[in-house]
Amino acid sequence: MSTAVGTTTLAEHGPALSALAVGAWRLDAWHFDDAALAAWIEHAIALGLTTFDHADLYGGFTCEALFGRWLKANPARRGDIQLVTKCGIKPPDTARGWTVKHYDTGRAHILASVDNSLRHLGTDYLDLLLIHRPDPLLDPDEVAEAFATLKSAGKVRHFGVSNFSPSQFALLASRTPLVTNQVEASLLHLDPLFDGTFDQCLERRVRPMIWSPLAGGRLFEAAANPALKRTLDTLAEELGVTPATLALAWLLRHPAQPLPIVGSRRLASLDDAARAAALPLGRQHWFALLEAAQGHAVP
């Protein structure tokens, strides 16, 4: 089975990303030296996994700079990858004057966060910027103005959101173009299939990005859902793939065409992810996994 991952567009006017993305939120915990970091990134690129997903606060605001070590050493590679990052979450941090976890989607914070991300990553533009969490104090006109400022300055090419409900997405999209909603989805988290999130993406022809598509590895633990693990193992053996490849292919099979984000330091895990893009999953296999996940057949 080929492991080449193709590119796809999130919406009618872009951006073009790889069909699966690589997540960097644990990068600080992997303790890569420069050689190991380069090997990890280059292996992903060789598989066609050219989109890397970040957020300003990952690793206590360190992961973007860790990734940036590689890009600053290899600036000619910038055109070979796509960089996604997020902003808007402020955890408690006395050094920064943040006494309580809160969200900030004000214009000043968005602009400052992007400047910091660009400096840390070692680039002069982002392919995609997302508002990380829905903010009860979000002013859609202010966010739209911040996005317009960043786009006109050439600092960010496209914009989206993360973890927004359909109504929250619709509100901001009424003021500014959005190309994705990055949400949690997996065989252990089915909500987007039934709460209108994927329906809205299909309606607007916007592809969702998916975080935690393997439920942080819990998919493969019998304690999480014994019937699901048995079905995953059985079908994976039948199809000649790993359970991880099968679980990702299950998401990719949805007509909303989700774009999963895989986060692992293991090169073999990147291989599993790449194989998912080339695994055509039949309808009965898809429903067998849904039935195991839900614990009952469809009505």
Automatic annotation (TrEMBL):
Organism: Pseudogulbenkiania subflava DSM 22618
Protein name from the UniProt record: Predicted oxidoreductase
Domain of life: Bacteria
All copies of domain NADP-dependent oxidoreductase, residue ranges: 20-286
Pfam family, one: Aldo_ket_red
GO molecular function, one term: oxidoreductase activity
Assigned GO CC terms: cytosol
